[in-house]
Design a protein that fits this description.
Radius of gyration: 17 Å
Strand content: 5-15%
Mean pLDDT: 96
Oligomer: single chain
Number of strands: 6
Largest sheet: 4 strands, parallel
Number of helices: 8
Helix content: 25-40%
Order of helices and strands: HHEHEHHEEHEHEH
Length: 222
């Protein structure tokens, strides 16, 4: 049983006993005991710990965690202070600066977003060192579908930022017409010029929040 310390505990109480999650748990026990896996096992569910269901107003969906030493800490696209900014995050910061005219900080820790109600959720929550997508199709997709499905039931508008094919596949779970789906290319250097740059998702998100009577996100206040 995973303890998250907020309303997600009750919402997801039945998930931990499902056959797919039991199989995933056994897989992870083997992986963590025999390989280097990221993030640290105590950080796997940080996205849900930092951002309660009730507080979630924006969801950014990533692929899987960073697979280099010291990078992943359970929030998609985020790295702890003191860790070099990964290329995708550099591009995210560049788009925020172009979109909002703000200067971003020298570090890449996004906990400030999470505490404002931005759920930073990867599609897959663990990865082997140096092997992106190595934990794909092991069960995490079922789990994150459940999380998104619960958010789909919220009675207040949620803005989902879906960047790239992996994130856009989650759009099928978001069926409630009160929510918003903003889709574009992934911020990776391989694809950012195919639509991420210039998407203005950060100002658009704030406009949608304000239109629904919610406070905008302070994207620069990390």
């Amino acid at each position: 049983m995973v303890k998250l310390g907020n309303d997600w505990d009750e919402i997801l109480a039945d998930e931990w006993q499902k056959p797919y999650y039991r199989a995933l748990h056994q897989f992870l026990k083997s992986e963590y005991s025999s390989c280097r896996v990221y993030p640290d096992m105590y950080d796997i569910f940080n996205a849900l710990r930092y951002t309660a269901f009730e507080d979630t107003r924006v969801v950014i969906i990533g692929q899987d965690p960073y697979h280099g030493p010291g990078q992943a800490h359970g929030l998609c696209f985020s790295v702890k202070k003191g860790v070099a900014l990964p290329p995708s995050l550099v591009n995210i910061y560049q788009e925020i600066e172009e979109d909002l005219g703000v200067t971003m900080p020298p570090h890449g820790e996004l906990t400030g977003w999470a505490k404002q109600g931005v759920l930073l959720l990867n599609t897959v929550l663990t990865v082997r060192e140096g092997r992106p997508n190595s934990h794909k199709e092991k069960g995490w997709e079922n789990f994150t579908d459940r999380v998104i499905g619960e958010l789909n039931r919220k009675e207040t508008p949620v803005i989902f930022l879906l960047w790239g094919a992996n994130a856009e596949r989650k759009a099928r779970v978001i069926t409630n017409p009160i929510h918003y789906k903003l889709c574009t290319a992934h911020p990776s250097p391989l694809s950012a010029y195919r639509g991420f740059f210039g998407c203005r998702h950060f100002s658009k998100t704030n406009e949608l929040l304000k239109a629904s009577g919610q406070e905008p996100i302070r994207w620069e206040a990390i």
